[in-house]
């Protein structure tokens, strides 16, 4: 399918707008603090590691109000924490052993496409493989989910179950276990972002 000239023009304009936005951001930051980028270039000391979903509607820093340097962010489809995923494990190890974060947050969100896809049917690789643990969770909690009389409610509950399961994985990782028992940190939290209201919900995760 070929793009029309108008479509191609709009795509290029959208792309160029990113750089215009960046120039405005730089100007605004310098206007409020001329040393902003000098400070930013120094070592980071974030207090949080945020593990969230890749969904473009859930920008971690914006929904939490975190400023640059305050939050290390790792995102993937349906906010998974898989011990076989070297990317996620590297981020967690770096956050805990090098940055000494005080809090690790796993944040899911209602209306999660990954959760919906896992519940609705079979998918080919690689997405189907990635979402298989969510299918296992849904099967494990089948009685609880089927007791909910509407599909949207089941989706929402599975989002919460998934967040709690990922928190349990984080808590049981050797690197977090070792430091937690020595220092009491990092503390692990499970959140859900409600896209309809903009609110963050603390699931009050307890290991």
Task: Write a structural description.
There is one protein chain. The longest helix has 28 residues, at 5-32. The chain is built from nine helices and five strands; from the N terminus they run ααβαβαβαααααββ. Strands 2-1-3-4-5 form a five-stranded mixed β-sheet. It is α/β, with parallel strands linked by helices.
Quick summary:
With 207 residues, the chain is of the alpha/beta class. It has helices at 5-32, 36-40, 60-64, 86-98, 113-120, 127-140, 142-146, 151-172, 174-183, and strands at residues 48-53, 71-76, 103-109, 187-194, 199-202.
Topology:
Layout: H1 5-32, H2 36-40, E1 48-53, H3 60-64, E2 71-76, H4 86-98, E3 103-109, H5 113-120, H6 127-140, H7 142-146, H8 151-172, H9 174-183, E4 187-194, E5 199-202
Helix pairs in contact: 5-6
